[in-house]
């Protein structure tokens, strides 16, 4: 019977066949230990010379790293294994012998590993990160589907920008200028006026010449937009969503988190509600922490976000930033027009901002004023203004960066490990 490593718990005491690759091996006298992987997980296969015969045993000892094979044996419980099971190998068939596999069990530098990303993905650590990423994606769809959201796909090629064109990739769209999307938000606002609650999940692009551990050129965003919801409503959705995702990873990725050495106690604390501080309070907190040069009106960098997060054991909302440093579409606070109804969600442990969100301007005259201030009077933005002309309502939304969220939940230092094939400032290969 053929099965997979992820399904062996259903076949204890049975003889099964698994198609696998040899991740590693070691031998001790008359026993060989094969570390097998099949894409669904990792499992040890025990080859005993007395049971398999001299010829087959020598063949097992000669197997090379990443060779592919069919392995047949009996599944038994093994409490020492992270999986909880292992195979007592009865026979195996070599499918393809791999020669001189470049990524060996020794240490390799990050550039070497990035050059071999197509192979590095096979390692237990990278496998675990991608499984965590997959669970976050699964839980995202689960959360929004169960809460009445409709998935809408915004275009990737656009004629305008959500937040200005200085950091966009430009291309020619026949005889017009076009850009790779940096956000689907403007289109999601249009969708929210048609469907009420919507979300998108797709690639976005930032031509930002940054080399920090938090930045990618191409990354994935989850962007919900909600009609008839104010800023406070949106904050509640954000903390419920993030809590749901974290708890889903804790429940469904125990082996992967163990492989990554993640401190799950810190993740177990991530349950709504989340603490909130205003931008004003954040400035004061930073000054108390030694950032004496920070002034009101300045945006926060990575060191500032990390210092603020250190005061909390959950993600923390920083609300009501100055209007002058935020996007044109954010609604001013009616009680204080110099700040906007917005929030950034800062992850604990130095992982920085994972969500940016706001209530959007719904007043036509105010949006016209913003258009003039930001020189958005061209035809490219006409349709967006019309959303305030025909049945405007209070509405809010946010965007979560998938890779930063994966990095935080998985406990990975650099976002280049959180996407299958990262696009970095100096990397377009493989």
TrEMBL record:
UniProt keyword list: Aminoacyl-tRNA synthetase, ATP-binding, Cytoplasm, Ligase, Nucleotide-binding, Protein biosynthesis
EC number of this enzyme: 6.1.1.22
GO cellular component, one term: cytoplasm
Keyword Ribonucleoprotein in annotation: no
Residue stretches making up the Aminoacyl-transfer RNA synthetases class-II family profile domain: 130-430
Catalytic activity: tRNA(Asn) + L-asparagine + ATP = L-asparaginyl-tRNA(Asn) + AMP + diphosphate + H(+)
Subcellular location: Cytoplasm
EC primary class: ligase
Name of the protein described by the UniProt record: Asparagine--tRNA ligase
Species of the source: Halobacillus mangrovi
């Amino acid at each position: 019977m053929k099965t997979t490593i992820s399904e062996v718990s259903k076949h204890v005491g049975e003889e099964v066949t698994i198609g696998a690759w040899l991740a590693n091996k070691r031998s001790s006298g008359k026993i060989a230990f094969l570390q097998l992987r099949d894409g669904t997980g990792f499992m040890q296969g025990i080859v005993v010379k007395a049971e398999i015969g001299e010829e087959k045993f020598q063949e097992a000892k000669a197997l090379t790293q990443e060779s592919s094979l069919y392995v047949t044996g009996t599944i038994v419980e093994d409490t020492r294994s992270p999986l909880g099971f292992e195979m007592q190998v009865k026979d195996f068939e070599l499918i393809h012998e791999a020669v001189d596999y470049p990524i060996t069990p020794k240490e390799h530098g990050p550039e070497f590993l990035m050059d071999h990303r197509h192979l590095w993905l096979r390692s237990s650590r990278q496998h675990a990160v991608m499984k965590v990423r997959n669970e976050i994606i699964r839980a995202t769809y689960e959360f929004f589907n169960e809460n009445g959201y409709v998935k809408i796909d915004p275009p990737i090629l656009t004629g305008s920008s959500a937040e200005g064109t200085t950091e966009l990739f430009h291309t020619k769209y026949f005889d017009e200028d076009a850009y790779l999307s940096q956000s689907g938000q403007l289109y999601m606002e249009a969708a929210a006026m048609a469907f009420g609650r919507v979300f998108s999940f797709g690639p976005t692009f930032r031509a930002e010449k940054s080399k920090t551990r938090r930045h990618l050129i191409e990354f994935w965003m989850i962007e919900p937009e909600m009609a008839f919801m104010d800023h406070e409503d949106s904050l509640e959705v954000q903390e419920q969503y993030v809590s749901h995702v974290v708890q889903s990873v804790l429940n469904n990725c125990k082996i992967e988190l163990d492989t990554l050495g993640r401190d799950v106690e810190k993740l177990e604390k991530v349950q709504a509600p989340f603490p909130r501080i205003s931008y004003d309070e954040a400035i004061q907190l930073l000054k108390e922490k030694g950032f004496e040069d920070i002034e009101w009106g300045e945006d926060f960098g990575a060191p500032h976000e990390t210092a603020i997060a250190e005061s909390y054991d959950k993600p923390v909302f920083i609300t009501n930033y100055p209007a002058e440093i935020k996007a044109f579409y954010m609604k001013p606070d009616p009680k204080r027009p110099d700040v906007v109804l917005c929030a950034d969600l800062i992850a604990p442990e130095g992982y920085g901002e994972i969500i940016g969100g706001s209530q959007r301007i719904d007043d036509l005259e105010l949006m016209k004023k913003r258009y003039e201030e930001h020189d958005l009077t061209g035809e490219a933005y006409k349709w967006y203004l019309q959303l305030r002309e025909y049945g405007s309502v209070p509405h809010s939304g946010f965007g979560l960066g998938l890779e930063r969220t994966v990095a935080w939940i998985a406990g990975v230092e650099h976002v280049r490990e959180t996407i299958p094939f990262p696009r970095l400032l100096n990397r377009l290969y493989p």
